[in-house]
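In keeping with the milestone schedule agreed at the kick-off meeting, the structural modelling team has produced records for the first pair of proteins. Each record is given below as a sequence line and a structure-token line. The laboratory manager (R.T.) confirmed that both were archived under the project's standard naming scheme.
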Amino acid sequence: MTRLILTFLLATASTTLFAQPVVTTNPKNVTNCINSCSDLTVKAVGDGLQYQWQMDLGAGFMNVSGAINDTFNVCDTGAAAPYTIDYRCVVIDQNGDSATSLVATMSVDSCLPPIADFTYTVNDLEVCFTSTSQNAETLIWNFGNGKTNANNVTSPCSDYDVVWQYDVSLFAFNDHGSDSVLKTISLVGLDEVSSTTKIFPNPASDVLYIQSMAQIKSIRMFNINGDVVEVGSNRHQIDLSKVAQGLYTLEIETTEAISHKQIMVTR
């Protein structure tokens, strides 16, 4: 019986002594901001363990000189974001047996907050927007007409029911901050009131000019409440110098027709 027990103990010791190392904790993916560092850590069990970290720059894994501990401090090498490097650790025991950890990726991030901006194009009462934001991961739009879009869309369009000026906002977010931009979109154009009458400029600040092939009989100007606004007029130009900024409706009666046009007064 004693001999059997001794044989068992020797066999167990032999198995423990010559067993290959086992990785118990693999390194985790990390994200470094530019000019910063993070630790990769591996844990293993075995006798007389040694460690050798390796990296892959795209041509296969190669040893990292001096990276021979269970923790490896990896730093951004000055490469511009985005940039990634794969790492792994080879664990070797005193018998020369080895085990290799799973791969961990170091990603380089600019870590800069977003800068919100957009451009737009107008087609009648439809306006299409394009985000030109930098470093943005999430976008939220407010079109200024009671409609929003929170679906992280880069190039949305919105329909407007009324010729007006609209304040459109874009909000940009990422893990490092947020930003917003507001732009006023004017749908007030320079088009004709009728086939024989034109007004310009629109928007206007001081004087609004009227050209008509037909004889002008009267000109009236209404505010958004429908009230008549007193303006100086000689039937070919309107003095807007004392008119408050805002949207108005111009009614022009000629010998041919009565036409209406929305105009914007600016300061």
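The second protein of the pair:
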Amino acid sequence: MKKLLLLLFVTILFTGCQNEVRYTQTSPEIDVIKSHIDHYEKKNWEAWLSHYADTSKSFFNTKGPGLSASDALAALKEGVEGLSSYGFEQDDGDMEMIVDDQGRTWVNFWGNWKGTLKDGGETLEVPVHLTYQMIDSKIVREYGYWDNAPRLRAEMAAANKPPRITSAVMKRDTTKKKSAVMKKTEKKKVAKNKDAVMKKN
């Protein structure tokens, strides 16, 4: 009887392990991250912050040290300050949830970020990868990877552009200077011609 009960217990345990989901594209954790990204796009920072655990760490294009949720928020706010619009392109992203060999739950996101600079008006497109470790539907660890170079180049180019003359007064002054220079030149030519006539006589 004991052997039969033991065999039944092992069978139930084995069946339970076999049914464990290790990979999916639909889960409550994925829904949390979808909301998290939506809050970022709408600048709903209070809701964005609510998805993090108190001890969370964020790593953006670096191995360390990690940022607290409030420091990550400050970095993101600074990043969107110089943009007139930004967000991820719809239907151009992919999301998945996996459970690794250590039993940790991760949500991965790949998307195409698009933003327009306030200064210069250039539109940028940058592929982004974000991965989140989740415990009890809260973000405990976050990694973000993207290329900052296109934005830095665009901002430097906008900063080095020569200023445009838009003032009507400045345009009028420029015209006056040109006409004054032309009159002086004409007088000199007339004077030279008189000298030449006098020498002949």
